[in-house]
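Here is the promised in-class demo. Please do not try to memorize the tokens; focus on the logic of going from shape to residues.
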């Protein structure tokens, strides 16, 4: 007889330590799962506390409140009648674990601690938790009073076990366990487990989803079985955007997939599967059966529930969900959606009134502005779909004394309420950049200010002259490089001061309440090279593009131009990137790439080799010799000495400017070659920029490559 099971997994927009909000989102997901006919529900990793609590996982309050929230869920009868798999931290015998709680009808059946912790890149789970290393072993966990009173239980099994229901067997995996070479699901599936849940706290990185989906498909491809993946979604209080994409795979195929980027706080994804499909596939695979016989059994805890329904006996027959092709966004789409969703969460959760962006008419600040535009479009779509949370948040932001429940009527209308742009010109600013900034602001609908700040610059320079008796000059007027840089940096830095002043007072001038978040727009490449003034407009409150490369930003703007038919973007794409901080003439215009001594495309290559391929100067030279030199596939091979000088120049500038990364504005994490010193790329910031030993080795290699 066919046994049909409806599984529910979900993406929840949890927020670190927001226990009320997290509880309500979990509760809602359980109710939606039940309404969809599901008999088992899984949710994101550490969903009760939020994944990103970080050092709050040292605090006993975090554990105490997690139990209190769990007790509320257990005693809520609307959450009974379904097998629940809920995430929270648990302290056992003085050790902290990242756990899943399996519960049914108000009773806890099992606490399953994570066995393989995530500890690279942005992940630091070993800082707060220990892995449970006792394979297939159970201990007794004595419940805290708040749960004892609720469930009537005093102790429950704690450890590595699976859950036997009346008709099937369920295993549990937590996020990173899927990514390890010897994932627990392999042995669990071999031991007769038919459904594995995976609860994740997995954040977005451009082009990363493929890997995750391949691993999930692979999990059920060789062994047969069903795999239900849940993830957190949204900004839970940090630089990371968790990108949902709850998913169910059966026998190597995806049968259900949720959104990767969304403003919905609760998204439940269900799939109906036929257990017979799993059993018949397994029975026909002889080599798998032989391995299964040899697999040591897992301890089983019993759940007195039948997850399946005999499909033919139902008045409305349930049909297994058909396989689908997984959906992947292009990189440009990912940029238009991920940072936009993150900005919306940040804005509403910070309770600020909107954004202020110094808009220069260049590509970078144009990209930041475009991401805000994308956010406004997403908000309007969510309002049209009746998303109650988005409606409430938009009403708070757009309220007027006359209409406290005012809702924006268009993306431009929303931008007019919350988005402020400011062109801060000097004598060195070009007419074209000023006009482009104005045109872009009009297109997006931002409240735009176009000002000149020469009086401010000359006041500071005059003060300096009065005190020192010296007047710095631009190089073009006979000044030294130092004078030239100082005159540029003072313009750039005063823009930052002005930006914060306007962010604080612009709403007041418009009879609005509150103040604005200052947005930054340095991209990952210029940060890496240090081609920016420390504490200028790069020192903003948050930066949606700080983790995105110039190359990807160009692709993003071209995509946006085509998607919404906005020819104005051509002007930004065609313009030569320039800081416009020195006098220009008929024969000279400042250009980023000329001043940096390298192109943005080269910087992307250096950046990836430095961080992703973990290259020091010598390894980078070797790799680039194969890539760009005569051994490479490129048409115009570069001489070893040319490659050597490019590598040395990069490392020189990277190292003298590394200190700028310590004060980098918090940015949306998007790239695996991000130089973010605070969380992702932990390195010294005082280097011997001569790299004497390393550069000598490069010179020796170049000598060896010279023809005899
Ligand atoms: N090792 C170290 N540890 C800690 N701090 C250190 C330091 N070395 C210098 N510093 C500090 O950093 C300062 C130097 O940094 P900073 O003031 O930024 O100045 P700096 O890096 O010398 O110059 C700014 C760079 O950005 C370029 N730029 C300027 C303006 C705008 C743009 C643009 O794209 O819009 C680009 C400009 O061409 C130049 O390459 C020093 O005066 C000192 O205060
Ligand atoms: N004239 C200006 N008015 C307002 N903000 C400015 C101005 N010039 C620079 N800024 C701010 O300083 C940041 C850094 O300038 P930068 O020249 O590196 O970037 P950009 O002009 O946006 O892009 P690009 O590097 O492609 O020219 C800008 O993104 C912008 O936020
Ligand atoms: N929370 C986790 O275990 C996440 C780790 C995993 N490598 C990921 O990026 O999704």
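The designed amino acids, position by position:
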């Amino acid at each position: 007889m066919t046994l049909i099971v409806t599984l529910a997994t979900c993406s929840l927009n949890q927020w670190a330590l927001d226990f009320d909000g997290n509880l309500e989102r979990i509760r809602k997901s359980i109710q939606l799962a039940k309404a969809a006919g599901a008999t088992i529900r899984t949710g994101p990793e550490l969903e009760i506390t939020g994944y990103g609590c970080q050092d709050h996982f040292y605090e006993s309050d975090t554990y105490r409140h997690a139990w209190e929230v769990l007790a509320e869920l257990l005693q809520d009868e609307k959450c009974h009648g379904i097998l629940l798999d809920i995430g929270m931290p648990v302290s056992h015998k003085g050790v902290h674990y990242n756990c899943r709680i399996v519960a049914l009808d108000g009773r806890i059946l099992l606490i399953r601690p994570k066995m393989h912790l995530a500890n690279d890149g942005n992940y630091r789970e070993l800082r707060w938790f220990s892995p449970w290393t006792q394979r297939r072993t159970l201990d007794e966990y004595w419940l805290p009073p708040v749960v004892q009173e609720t469930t009537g239980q005093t102790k429950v099994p704690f450890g590595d076990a699976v859950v036997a229901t009346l008709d099937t067997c369920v295993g549990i995996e937590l996020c990173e366990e899927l990514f390890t070479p010897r994932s627990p699901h392999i042995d669990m599936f071999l031991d007769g487990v038919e459904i594995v849940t995976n609860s994740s706290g997995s954040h977005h990185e451009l082009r990363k989803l493929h890997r995750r989906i391949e691993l999930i498909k692979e999990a059920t491809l060789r062994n047969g079985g069903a795999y239900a993946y849940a993830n957190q979604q949204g900004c839970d209080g940090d630089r990371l955007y968790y990108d949902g994409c709850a998913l169910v795979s059966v026998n190597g195929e995806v049968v259900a997939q949720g959104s990767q980027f969304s403003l919905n706080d609760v998204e439940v994804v269900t799939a109906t599967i036929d257990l017979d499909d799993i059993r018949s596939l397994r029975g026909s695979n002889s080599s798998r059966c032989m391995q299964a016989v040899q697999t040591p059994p897992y301890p089983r805890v019993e759940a007195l529930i039948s997850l399946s329904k005999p499909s033919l006996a139902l008045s409305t027959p349930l049909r297994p969900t058909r396989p689908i092709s997984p959906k992947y966004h292009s990189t440009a789409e990912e940029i238009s959606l991920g940072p936009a969703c993150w900005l919306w969460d940040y804005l509403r959760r910070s309770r600020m009134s909107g954004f202020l962006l110094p808009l220069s008419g260049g590509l970078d600040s144009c990209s930041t502005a475009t991401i805000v535009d994308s956010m406004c479009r997403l908000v309007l779509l969510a309002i049209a779909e009746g998303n109650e949370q988005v409606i409430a948040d938009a009403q708070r932001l757009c309220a007027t004394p006359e209409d406290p429940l005012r809702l924006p009527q268009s993306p431009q209308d929303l931008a007019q309420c919350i988005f402020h742009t400011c062109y801060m010109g000097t004598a060195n600013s070009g007419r074209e950049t000023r006009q482009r900034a104005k045109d872009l602001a009009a297109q997006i609908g931002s409240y735009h200010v176009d000002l000149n700040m020469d009086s401010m610059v000359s006041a500071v320079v005059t003060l300096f002259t009065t005190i020192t008796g010296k007047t710095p000059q631009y190089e073009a007027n006979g000044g030294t490089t130092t004078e030239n840089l100082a005159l540029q940096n003072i313009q750039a830095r005063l823009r930052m001061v002005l930006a914060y002043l306007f962010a604080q007072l612009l709403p007041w001038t418009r009879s609005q309440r509150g103040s604005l978040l200052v947005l930054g727009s340095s991209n990952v490449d210029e940060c890496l090279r240090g081609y920016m003034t420390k504490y200028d407009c790069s020192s903003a409150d948050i930066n949606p593009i700080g983790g995105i490369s110039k190359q990807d930003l160009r692709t993003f703007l071209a995509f946006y131009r085509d998607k919404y038919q906005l020819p104005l973007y051509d002007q930004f794409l065609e313009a030569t990137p320039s800081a416009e901080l020195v006098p220009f003439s008929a024969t000279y215009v400042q250009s980023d790439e000329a001043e940096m001594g390298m192109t943005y495309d080269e910087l992307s290559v250096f950046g990836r080799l430095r961080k992703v391929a973990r290259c020091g100067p010598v390894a980078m030279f070797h790799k680039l010799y194969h890539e760009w030199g005569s051994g490479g596939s490129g048409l115009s091979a570069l001489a070893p000495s040319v490659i050597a000088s490019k590598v040395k120049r990069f490392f020189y500038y990277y190292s003298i400017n590394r200190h700028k990364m310590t004060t980098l504005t918090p940015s949306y994490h998007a790239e695996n070659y991000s130089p973010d010193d605070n969380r992702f790329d932990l390195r010294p910031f005082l280097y011997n920029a001569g790299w004497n030993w390393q550069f000598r080795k490069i010179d020796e290699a170049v000598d060896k490559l010279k023809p005899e």
